[in-house]
Every structure is written in C-alpha cells, then in structure tokens.
Amino acid sequence: MEYKQLYKSDFQEISYNETHNIIKSSWNTPINLSEKLYREELNKYFEIIEETSPQLILVDAIRAYYKIKPDTQEWINERNVQIHKKIELRKMGWAVSSDLFSQISFEEALDNVKDETAFQLNYFDDILEAEKWLLI
Questions:
Q1: Please, is 49 exposed, middle or buried when counting C-beta atoms within 10 Å of its C-beta (0-12, 13-18, 19+)?
Q2: How far apart are CA 23 and CA 99, in angstroms?
Q3: What is the mean pLDDT of each run of 10 residues along the chain (136 residues)?
C-alpha cells in the first residue's frame, strides 16, 4: 500500500493513505532517548492524528526500543482516549518487536485506551500482517 509522507524526524515517520483513511506511524526510538524528545514526538503524532482523523492507524514499533516511563504511559493513555474518541477510530494495529520489554511498555501505554474507547486493537510481529488485519 502506498502512503504519502506527512512528517519525518530521526525518531518517527508518519504517512497517510487517503484511499483507506489510514495513518502509518513508524518509530525508530533508541533505548536512551530523552523523555522530553519522546513526548515531543508523541505530540507531533497526536497533532497529525487530530488533523487527519483516520479511521485506521498502523503503528510500526518494531524498531522502537524506548522503554516508556510510567508517568508518560499515563499521559499517553489520556491523550489517546481523548483523540481516539474524538476521531471515532475504528481499528489500530501495532507491529511490535519480539523484545518482551518494549512490547509490555506499549501494551501498558495503551491499557486504559482499550477499556475507554470502542476501537479494535491488535498486536502483530509483522507490519504486513497488521496492515492486512486493518483492511478487513
């Protein structure tokens, strides 16, 4: 599937497929990334999600090694719930590293989001499988 790049930094690339109304966010975060930089990148992600109002979100976190701190997890939960309710997100697919710690970190960051919003959330170890699932 083809995507139009909307944003690119050293830590993430955000692209959009208008036909399927899907945002793809690919993360490349080192384990030693500063909390300040990580939150700045998340704010850019949230800004683009609000602007585009996608029905589907694909997150490629296979190269995301940053361990999300508990207070940031809570902040992510709050922002995700607000935004995903507002845009009426239908589905979110995550391709995650087989690294257990980064996967647990992402699941914890999205813990309350699943409970407080109506969209479907699923985890994969392959980006193409996640994309296929989103399009079903």
A1: buried
A2: 24
A3: 97 97 96 94 97 97 88 88 92 80 54 64 92 96
Residue keyed to tokens 């399009």: 135
pTM, 2 dp: 0.87
CB 116 within 8 Å of CB 76: no
Q: Retrieve residue 40's tokens.
A: 């700045």
CA distance 37 to 70: 16
Q: Which amino acid appears at position 124 of this protein?
A: F
- Token digits for 79? 């922002």
Tokens (6 digits) for 117: 């919003």
Q: What share of the chain is helix, strand, coil (3-state, %, to 5)?
A: 45, 30, 25
Q: 21 is written with which tokens?
A: 């109304």
C-alpha distances out from residue 65 to 68, 78, 96, 124, Å: 9, 22, 10, 16
**Cα(23)–Cα(101) distance, integer angstroms:** 25
